Model the fold of this input.
Amino acid sequence: IKGSTRLYHYFYLRSCKKSLMSSKINRTLEIFSPFKGYVRNIAIVFSGSSFSELVPILISPLLTRVYSAEDFGKYGFVISLAALLNQLSTLSYENSIVISKNDHQVFTAWKACEYLTIFINSLCLVLSLFVCLWFFGSASDNDFLWYALIPVISFSGAFLRIQILLANREE
Done:
């Protein structure tokens, strides 16, 4: 009987502490109620960006078993060159989409960005194919594929950035 009474008191005290704690939390939240929507939006953005930073950390042990250090180096080199080409491919003209005053200016800026992206990335694709063939001698080498993908990655990234800025303009 004594053991069951102790167990009852333990759970009773524990529930009292929880209710006391929840009432303190509720009082604290009432103080910040004018900022509730703002804090909620910040929490959503923070959790999303934290999760996106956490995924590579969690997957890296698997990737290090599959790929060698040389492959990671090639990947980093290709992605950095694609990011540089991505910035150059639209000549930062896509920023004019957001600040345009009317729909005609938006359409003109959007088309100009698309044409610039297609032209510059096509030119870089032809140049990278010639350079790769000159350095490697044949298209059968695995490195050839890595370097030929640089303009393709840049092309897709530039179009994605243009579409995101166009969607931001619509909001």
In short: The chain has a mean pLDDT of 78. The radius of gyration is 28 Å.
